């Protein structure tokens, strides 16, 4: 049996992962995701903390539940947020009720936790800048989530607690599980998702095998073209990512991270970035990964990730020199795409790298 996917779960003590199944095929795994559900939230008794007017387009928001002393208890996130209405209090014009339209971030509760005798909430932006405090939060006219996406894992050689559960010999609740895509050697190409098993049947792929019906988020269609490029292992040809658009380039970084190998090289080295295809931020991160770690290399997927990589453990240590070839492509293209989130410009990237003790030589 040649397995293309591995399904992992927790052991009975919930202390370590164990292999639950090797699967030959995943049917309907690749699909366009449903459009994000935009919801209306009312921030009640809101007081803005910034000295300048808050723009209507807020972007990513971090909401922190506060205890009675004003200390943060936890975080809750909204994406692509916009202010669509404000109503000032007649008794105090500095206080207002603010209606925000936003997408609730995935893999978090439907509503933020609020402690008894809470002081309310604070709200900040992606850079952790405080924007406002407010007393309470309400979702206006709640909307239903779209139906779950169904995937069929075919030809599964199941084992451990999963086999016991399918055969009626395990009565407990199966815990955390995730799916990985595998290459021809059985090594992980990339994380594939968090499946919830909803049905099973004997498989036509062979005796003792099962077909599992699971609910999980789909992988973007571009991934169906990316993973085959990693089936024989990490690519040896540079710039294979360049054929893809922004979504595909972002997805390319998943197997690149999974294949990160090797110790850090000494500080003071020189690395060459091929800038011919750096037409967007995702292209920059793909090209930077290959500049430092060769074809299929990884060195962060956002500025925070690059900052972590520069701290060590990702193949290079600062200070070092980065020779940016064909930099004019990035100078023309970066920071001008019509995105909901503000993209970095070329000068901002240069300033970031130099601040992190990377000497950039423009070629």
- Can you write the helix and strand succession as a string? EEEEEEEEEHEEEEHHEHHEHHE
Looking at the overall shape, the CATH architecture of the largest domain is 2-Layer Sandwich
CATH topology of the largest domain: Barnase, Chain D
Rg over CA atoms: 24 Å
Gap from first CA to last CA = 50 Å
What is the total number of structural domains? 3
The helical percent reads: 10-25%
What is the tally of helical segments?
7
Low-confidence stretches: none
Total number of β-strand segments?
16
The major beta sheet can be summarized as: 7 strands, antiparallel
Instruction: Give the CATH superfamily of the largest domain.
Output: Barstar-like
- Strand residue percentage: 35-45%
SS-derived structural category? alpha+beta
Q: What is the overall pLDDT average?
A: 92
- Looking across the biggest beta sheet, what order are the strands in? 11-10-1-2-9-13-12
Broad CATH class of the largest domain: Alpha Beta
Structure commentary:
- With 363 residues, the chain is of the alpha+beta class.
- The protein folds into 3 domains: 5-33 and 147-219, Pnp Oxidase, Chain A; 38-140, Elongation Factor Tu (Ef-tu), domain 3; 224-362, Barnase, Chain D, CATH 3.30.370.
- 17% of the residues lie in helices and 36% in strands.
- It has helices spanning 160-166, 223-226, 246-258, 281-293, 303-310, 327-333, 346-355; strands spanning 5-10, 17-27, 38-48, 57-66, 72-88, 96-104, 120-125, 130-140, 150-158, 177-182, 188-193, 196-202, 210-215, 270-274, 320-325, 358-362.
- Strands 11-10-1-2-9-13-12 form a 7-stranded antiparallel sheet.
- A hairpin with a 5-residue loop joins strand 4 (57-66) and strand 5.
- Helix 3 runs parallel beside helix 4.
